[in-house]
Amino acid sequence: MESAEASILLDELTRVTGREDPYSRYRQLREISPLVRADDGALVVTRHADCVAVTRDPRLGHMPPHMLEFVSPNWENHPALRHLFTSILTINPPDHTRLRRLVSSSFTARRVQALQPRITEMVDDLLDRMTGDVDFVEAFAFPLPVNVIGELLGIPEPDRAQFQGLVRDWTLVLETMTSDVLKIADPAAATIREYLAGLTAERRRKPADDMISALVAAEEDGEKLSEDELLTMAALLFAAGFETTTNLLANSVVALLRNPDQLALLRDDPGLAPSAVEELLRYDTPVQLLARVAWDDIELAGVPVSGGERIVAYLGAGNRDPERFPDPDHLDLTRQDNAPLSFGGGIHYCLGAPLARLEAQIALPALVNRFPKLDFAGDPGRRDSLAIRGYTTLPVSVS
Ligand code: HEM
């Protein structure tokens, strides 16, 4: 299980060159062993079947507070960690079950489907404004999802743009929790919370037809969200609602421009959008990994794992496992049976998956149809992170 070679590969994934091409490193890791131990002690799985097992096995979950204290001492006094570790993303049943039920009742499929005409309008409006050379992230990949989730939650339009930097700074803690990172992430998380506290207070006084008001009113079996839970939920929904989808759109454009035959397929047949989006999610997912802890002694990848061990599933690697996807490094928008691991699985399965899919299914065909000469206009600037994979800038020319 331990291997010097695996250690080098994992270390490369923390560096710029490794992040430029994680997929060849994942392949080598998978070939060395399906389960390798990272230098920080966590066990890493890279096979599709093992990633699925990590997300679905009820004997795996998130760290209870006493373990968190051991890994991230004093976490409750750091806004960035407090927001993360008390959110549904990282809590366990029964609290997770209760909060998930409460938020699901406000975030319904009907509410998402009803957004279709509005998303189409926003896409057309953003495309109308793009001429010459533009930064695709700034001109489209960020404004579309931030305005969609902003409208859904009820965040006033002029306030939305400031959250791009704030959320990027907060989510640095998904990568590493060093004191240097916390110096940036804590004030960002505190600002987000303060803003949402003000907005929630307004909605309590005067409810509107938006999700913050729905969350204020949400009640199941006599249970309501506490003020603290509500703010954490709103912050997570807002952040997850645009950060990941921004990266999906930018990663997809890069993948399509590097595979012009596939771009042409989508341009010729917009009906390909649903399968194209699944394939693009598989090919270069914005969320590359997720973490769990074993609550019990289990067997994973055929190896005994003791209770208390930390486990990281590399979803990006599982998405390229040849045992599951033939010729996995080939982008094939017509691929059948291409359900990606990108939204996770089990009880934490992404709550926003239908929304992310809908946005990409509307945006990508519209983009490639509007601009027949869409091309790179410079080198993309990669976000310095592996957990969340994407670009900070993506210069493209549209005419
Ligand atoms: C391409 C876009 C997206 C990707 C790749 C993605 C990926 C993921 C993944 C992998 C998880 C599970 C994490 C884990 O099990 O540890 C997750 C959970 C979650 N996602 Fe997404 N997401 C996307 C878009 C969205 C959007 C648009 C929203 C909200 C509007 C959202 C809200 C959430 C929430 C609330 C959870 C936590 C669910 C729970 O723990 O029960 N996501 N997402």
From TrEMBL:
Domain of life: Bacteria
Coiled coil stretches, renumbered: none
A Pfam family the protein falls into: p450
Keywords: Heme, Iron, Metal-binding, Monooxygenase, Oxidoreductase
GO process terms (BP): antibiotic biosynthetic process
GO molecular function: heme binding; iron ion binding; monooxygenase activity; oxidoreductase activity, acting on paired donors, with incorporation or reduction of molecular oxygen
Similarity field: Belongs to the cytochrome P450 family.
PANTHER family on file: CYTOCHROME P450 YJIB-RELATED (PTHR46696:SF1), P450, PUTATIVE (EUROFUNG)-RELATED (PTHR46696)
Name of the featured protein: Cytochrome
Organism this protein belongs to: Couchioplanes caeruleus subsp. caeruleus
Origin organism lineage: Bacteria, Bacillati, Actinomycetota, Actinomycetes, Micromonosporales
